Amino acid sequence: MEHWDNAVKQGQYLARRLSGESEPFKNIPYFFSDVFDLSYEFWGDTAGAERIEYRGDVNSSSFSTWWLKGEKLVAAFAMNRPDSEREKASQLSFEDV
Length: 97
What we know:
Layout: H1 4-18, E1 30-35, E2 38-44, E3 51-57, E4 62-69, E5 72-79, H2 83-90
Antiparallel strand pairs: 1-2, 2-5, 3-4, 4-5
């Protein structure tokens, strides 16, 4: 995913590799944007999701979408949502995706 967050993580990974670490690069896709009064974030990859859940009113400027595979969260989109929702989404781990 083309976002500066990914570029920073790739640079950090390269530094670790040059220092002798051999772990493969693992990254949860992530991006965010703030445009006027809209603030949104997206984590993960929706491919393979088996169901979608929504919180809030999707016809408003405050809602979130959660993609799940079984009981595991694989991706999340949050727009103008409470910190508690954003924090849960940001805790995705590579093993979850």
